[in-house]
User: Fold this.
Amino acid sequence: MSKTNKKENFWRGLVSNQLFIPIIALLLLAIINLFHDPTFFKVTMGLNNAGNPVLSGYLITILDYGSELAILAIGMTLVTAASGGQDISVGATIAIAGSAMLRVLCGGEARPTDLAAPVIVAFLVACIVGMLCGLFNGVLVAIFKIQPMIATLILFTAGRSIAAWINNNELPIVPDPKFGYFGGFIPGIPVPTTVFIAIACIIIIALVLKLTNLGLYTQAVGINEKSSRLNGINPTAIKILAFVILGLCVAVAALIKVSRLSTINYSVIAKDIEMDAILAVALGGNALSGGKFNIWASVLAAYVIQFLTTTLYKFEVSSDALAAYKAVVVILLVVFSAPTVRNYLSSLGKKFTSKKEVA
Amino acid sequence: MEKAKKESIFTRVSDTNLLLSITIIVFVLMYIGAALILGGAFTKPQAFFNILNANAALIITSCGMSLVMITGGIDISIGGVVALVSMCCAVYLDHHNGSIFGSIMIALGIGLAYGLVQGFLVAYLDIQPFIVSLAGMFFARGMTTIVNTAPFNVENEKFIALKLTRINVPGMGSVNKLGAYVPAYVEIGVVVALILVIILFAVLRWTKLGRSFYAVGGNMQSALMLGINVKRTKFLSHLICSLLAGIGGYVYFLHVGSGAASHAMGMEMNAIASSIIGGTMLTGGVGNIIGTLFGVLSLSTIQNIVSSAGFDQAWWTGITIAAMLCLFLLIQSVIMANKKKALKAV
Assistant:
């Protein structure tokens, strides 16, 4: 008797675990690919354009492009948990931060022959710009009490215009090939650099969550703002902090994005990435209305979403039409995670099991 | 004593009227200022009607947006719906040699389908309207490229005849350089837009359904207590909004006469901005369709001012709209905070 109870508890624990949905989705996608074309999983060693040995294959692409999404998912999860809304301006702020970075690197010239400033300075400037954008959003949300999605709509519209304005609508090209390492490969290391950047970000956020009360406070503010204030937490500060952290994540993502091309395209860079980041948070089982969160589930979900994108590309879906398929996935996801539907399904399940017992 | 009197006046004006009057004053001042300082185009009647001609679709979609916002929701799929409607109608008219009536039915059908699905998801499954319509927006944009990737102009003769139809405005006009009198004109879309504005204004002000939109947006709990069917009201608000987006899509299509995946990029943003400038509160329960009309006019007037003042690079448009939206959001936020304080003091 106790044994069956234990077994049931184990299953219930597994199903209610936040990592359950992303893992199932990952397995599902893997199986579909396995049946469609087993070569999907082949990873080969080859030489890239610069003559360095690198790993290539669909799986490596997923790791490479999933990493920038995972970095954004970290910040987006915190914002979602603290404010109960999502930041839809991340794509536009990536354009702003990337544009600022290029402006510093190229010193305002379109075709410079030398770097005008070291990469680290440019990155720090991008971080400050990203944090300022986060601060702007955070102040609107926390102090002026505007809904997060509306407040971030301001930068969503203006962002790409501001990015074009920073560089006077020029598209400067970074002359130093070393700048390309951040979004590509470091010579001698066959794994994409983005993976290491993502791991570094994950370790940092893990340490922050472990060593500080940020996680607990964020959850408290997200669950009930009033009672958290009565308990001595400052909800305004926590919300602004969440947006500023997202701003930092945006700056890191901007470094990767700009480094991939060594230049920028204001209207296309990081287009629709906010959709993927929000999708990662939702797929990770985090409540979109705020409160409890699990960053690891979001990070895993980010890679799953990149897996989905790559699979869709493999099925020869054009990049413009991709949004339509993803939208269907989002709708299915939110429909199944909606409380109304869940209650209905669980009541159905209960009916089913009670009938079984009677029989 | 003096202060108490001032506060009582401040609290006596309803939220809707207070924000509406701010909008109208801002628009009138802005237009007069532009006519005095920049002169030229702003002084001719046709300049004003051109603003209407260019923004008829935006007026229609903004009205839908205001309706949803009054009910406490939001719908950011309208830009995508407009693009999808123009592309589908363009393909139907050009590649399949379809009729005008058929294309109008397509536009209404797309709007209706969008409204039914989104309304159901938002009202009956309790999913956040923003997420639903965000997915709706991406679906519409993706579908538009699936229907047809390349942008193209429609060459259907009946359609072009309809597109070029101009309705002269009686008593208005100007004398051109050759000394001939040129009457001011509007396009068909403007007439449709104005009729819809009047209908919606009447519905919101005098019908049971219209008042229940305000009640649900103002306080859902009390609306439920009053016996209002909250779910049905929410559903209807999204249904009407998407239907208006379908009509707006056809009016937009009539104005530009082509189908392209990049059509109406960011129109949802302009619609939200117009509604907010027009005095619709994001938190729901406050808003006015006439205000929305003035919101659209203010928005396009400031765009005209910016471009004729010499800032004609493309990026200034985005920055101006965002700045204006930001300003009005802050005004709303401050007014409401002050009002709460004043009410508490009383």
